Amino acid sequence: METLFKNRFLEIMIDRERKFAQVAYFEETQNLTVEEYIENTTTTANYFKTFLNEGIDKILFDTRNNFYPISVDLQEWTVKQFEQFSQINYKSATILSTDLITMLSIEQAVDGFNDQNKRLNNSFFDNEEDAMEWLYS
Fold this sequence. Notes:
Helix content: 40-55%
Structural class: alpha/beta
Order of helices and strands: EEEHEHEHEH
Radius of gyration: 14 Å
Number of strands: 6
Number of domains: 1
Strand content: 15-25%
Number of helices: 4
CATH topology: Transcription Regulator spoIIAA
CATH architecture: 2-Layer Sandwich
CATH class: Alpha Beta
Strand order of the largest sheet: 1-2-3-4-5-6
């Protein structure tokens, strides 16, 4: 896996051979500000373009160590950042945060995107093994 981007909040990786990408969040997200959330989400959306332009069709969002609860306003803003990808077919698995409030906010944001993108094949998991098995099934 090649790391495309990494900071104290997240790491974005790609495996072109397996047509796979991963976004993993770090515990430092507990100190994330709204501005940093917006900056990191914008960065992720920009790399998302790269993924899909290169034929990546499997994406894993590992939010187990994400401790930033996304407000309703930011959930709506986040959905808008990814609307541009609503006509592209890909599979997305999300490993949910261990923090209940963060987990619920992530589920709501992803569900909001699912409502916009009927072609998205997304599922939630509590571990990487099940998520990877599902992505490659």
